[in-house]
Amino acid sequence: MKGNYARKGITLVLAIMMAMAVMTGCGNKNSELVTISESETPKTDSVDAGYIEALKSDIQEDILYTHENGWSVRYNPSCITVNGGGPITTFVYTADCPGTCMITVTYDVNKNGKEAADELAKRWGDEAVVSECIFPATEDVNGFYVDAHPGQLGPGFYESAYVRDYLDGYLMFEFTDHVSGDDAIDIPVSDTLSAIIDSLQFN
Prior knowledge:
alpha+beta; 42% helix; 31% strand; 3 helices; seven-stranded antiparallel β-sheet
């Protein structure tokens, strides 16, 4: 009887030990799976975070440019370079374009708006036309629009300007634009330069 109990006891101990071994093995496998899963998650998160940061770096907010003569505009620094100082300020488009694309802002006290518009049209040639208009960013300020080639369509070189009496002289926003005929190139140029004049404000 005692031998039978001993054998049963040994058998029971062995069974328990085997069960524990199996459970321990399963536990190790589960912990390995958890460890792998947890180690992969930060990598995925870090890639996503890096991608988001890259996108943020590509998106630049417009910058406010304020001139000492009391006007201001906003421009996109990723594709516009500003050259200021003195009576002339230029906003030059620096991304892909077929030629010079820019806005030149001039303030001068030697002429009034009408005189400056007429002189510009004369410089541009016989096709240039001067017409009266309401100056951009205003509701009731009379100005002049000068078009070097009225009715021009398609690829080519375009020039136009808005001019008004301002302070003791005139203020002119002159547009220089090369058009390629490829919308993928021309539309971003047009939108960027238009956004500048559309943002014009007077203090």
